[in-house]
Amino acid sequence: MAAQNLTATLDKIAAWVDSAIAPELEYLVPPDEGAVDEIDLEWAHPTVSQAFTPPVERLQDGERQAPSIAVQLTGGADGLRIDRELTIRLLLTIWSPGHFADGRFMRDSDGWRDLFNGLGTMVAAVENAETIAACSVDMASGVEFGFYEIDKEIPDLYPYWIGRVDFKLRRSPQANKRFEALL
Questions:
Q1: What's the CA gap between 78 and 86, in Å, rounded?
Q2: Which of 130, 119, 156 is nearest to 21 (CA)?
């Protein structure tokens, strides 16, 4: 039963991200062929997925790997007399190889700026939400954000950029019928 509660909560968190955050962000969609010099620019709101961004062959119609937001449960804790705590990570992946102006493409490494603008929007949405998925946002723990890291190193995935927003949610513990008579 607890696992169903967790998955239902994650479904609700993903739905919140899809309705409250994704519509506020818009990024370039990478071309299928990879060449950028003569593409028609396509912009899209991030696709929202749970746990991980699916590989290309498992994407549904209209979904994409970039831009995307993966909603992850990175940890949790329960106790007899404490709230359930869920540690949530939102991973934003964008494609930003450079800038397009006057029909010309100019390669640069400023995609981190686009990424951090999106992370700022995501942080603000979390900080302004009192509850997400019937859980309280734990503002005492704060909201952390930055580049996605692997073994404490920021991977160079140019022209893709990946950032994270980490926060905690709290909710009342589930009633445990075994101990009701003792309380």
A1: 9
A2: 119
How far is it, in rounded angstroms, from Cα 121 to Cα 149? 20
**Residue at token pair 């890291």:** 149
Q: Which of 115, 180, 170 is nearest to 140 (CA)?
A: 170
- DSSP 8-state secondary structure symbol assigned to residue 29: P
Query: What pLDDT does 83 receive?
Result: 84
Beta strand extents in 64-123 (DSSP E only): 68-77, 84-95, 98-101, 104-107
pLDDT higher than 60, residue 1 = no
Q: pLDDT over 70 for what percent of the chain?
A: 90
Top pLDDT among 79 and 132 is at: 132
Phi and psi torsions of 154, nearest 5°: -85, 115
pLDDT digits (tens, 9 = 90+) for 133-148: 999 999 999 999 999 9
pTM: 0.90
Long-range contacts formed by 105-113: CB under 8 A, 24+ apart: 105/36, 105/37, 109/158, 111/158, 111/159, 111/161, 112/147, 112/161
DSSP E strands in 113-174: the ranges are: 131-132, 135-137, 144-147, 160-171
Q: Which two tokens stand for residue 170?
A: 């709290």
CA distances from 45 to 17, 27, 29, 175 (A): 12, 6, 9, 39
